[in-house]
């Protein structure tokens, strides 16, 4: 039996990287998926690869805009009849030291990660509480646990997602809606592989398992939190880090 058979999931930031891997994993486990992304063309291409309109739909979505998130969720309801899983994954980086970071760089990262996750959580919750069930999975980061140099904006936003998830979990538990978070560590992606070799090697040296993670390894944990295998879990934060900073 597939773990998400007959379920409908919405994934933001789903055109590439971790978001796309989550969408692929969910479809493989029986879900219909709506992919939200600023890059509409990439989202459309991903949806086509996942099986086309009967299995996957793409919607251009700026998660900082509540109306865009409404449209994303409306697509799930109109195309597939329910909203069972919401994955708030969309994110950006604008790294700079505290001394050189601009106010705009700070605001952009807080808006996309923290406000975007708030929009996705509250909009999904409004539907799920009426259904008396659902799972929300928010993507935080190890940076939100330990803080990273050059990432006061990103670390603050990712720590905020943990607090948001725990507060929402308490509000929604009696409606049958679960809210959990994932904190990935060093995950191999186009973004991380673009970093200087010296920085990559330094991060790798901090990982007890001795390797970077793969996007599908984050997707597997998202699947666990989205399905009934985690039916008695809410308000938790699962680290997918290879043991880094445990």
Automatic annotation (TrEMBL):
Database matches in Pfam families: adh_short_C2
EC number assigned by the record: 1.1.1.100
InterPro entries referenced in this protein's UniProt entry, alphabetically: KR_dom, Sc_DH/Rdtase_CS, SDR_fam
Domain Ketoreductase: residue ranges: 7-190
Gene Ontology MF terms in the entry: 3-oxoacyl-[acyl-carrier-protein] reductase (NADPH) activity
UniProtKB keywords: Oxidoreductase
Family affiliation: Belongs to the short-chain dehydrogenases/reductases (SDR) family.
Name recorded for this polypeptide: 3-oxoacyl-ACP reductase FabG
Originating species: Nonomuraea guangzhouensis
Organism lineage: Bacteria, Bacillati, Actinomycetota, Actinomycetes, Streptosporangiales
């Amino acid at each position: 039996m597939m773990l998400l058979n007959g379920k409908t999931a919405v994934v933001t930031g789903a055109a590439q990287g971790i978001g796309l891997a989550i969408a692929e994993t969910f479809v493989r486990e029986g879900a219909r998926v709506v992919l939200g992304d600023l890059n509409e063309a990439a989202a459309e291409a991903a949806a086509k690869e996942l099986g086309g309109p009967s299995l996957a739909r793409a919607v251009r979505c700026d998660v900082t805009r509540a109306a865009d998130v409404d449209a994303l969720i409306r697509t799930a309801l109109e195309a597939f009849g329910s909203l069972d899983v919401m994955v708030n994954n969309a994110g950006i980086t604008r790294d700079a030291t505290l001394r050189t970071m601009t106010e705009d760089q700070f605001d952009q990262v807080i808006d996309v990660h923290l406000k975007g996750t708030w929009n996705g959580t509250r909009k999904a919750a409004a539907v799920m509480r009426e259904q008396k069930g659902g799972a929300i999975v928010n993507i935080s980061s190890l940076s939100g646990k330990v803080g990273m140099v050059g990432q006061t904006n990103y670390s603050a936003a990712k720590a905020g997602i943990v607090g948001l998830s725990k507060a929402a979990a308490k509000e929604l538990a009696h409606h049958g809606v679960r809210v959990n978070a994932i904190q990935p560590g060093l995950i191999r992606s186009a973004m991380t592989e673009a970093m200087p070799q010296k920085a990559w090697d330094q991060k790798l040296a901090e990982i007890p398992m001795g390797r970077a993670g793969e996007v599908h390894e984050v997707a597997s944990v998202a699947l666990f939190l989205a399905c009934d295998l985690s039916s008695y879990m809410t308000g938790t934060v699962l680290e997918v880090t290879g043991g880094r900073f445990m």
